[in-house]
Write a structure and sequence with these properties.
Helix content: 25-40%
Oligomer: single chain
Strand content: 15-25%
Number of helices: 3
Protein name: Small CPxCG-related zinc finger protein
Organism: Pedococcus aerophilus
Bound molecules: zinc ion
Structural class: alpha+beta
Radius of gyration: 11 Å
């Protein structure tokens, strides 16, 4: 696996520290691809994520 900085699928920010992002960011799978949500967006959208895995909000 390449050490590629994750990009938040919600706000588009790039993880400043990939190794840290793998811990604090939320990883999901969308159409067979890894998608990332930063810690801030994870918090903001926690209800949406927990409620149902639906991509309509992004
Ligand atoms: Zn974000």
């Amino acid at each position: 696996m390449a050490d590629q900085a994750p990009v938040c699928a919600t706000c588009g920010t790039t993880a400043p520290d990939p190794s840290l992002a793998t811990i604090t960011w939320t990883r999901g799978t969308e159409n067979g691809r890894d998608t990332w949500t930063c810690d801030r967006c994870s918090r903001d959208h926690l209800r949406s994520i927990e409620g149902k895995l639906d991509s309509t909000w992004w």
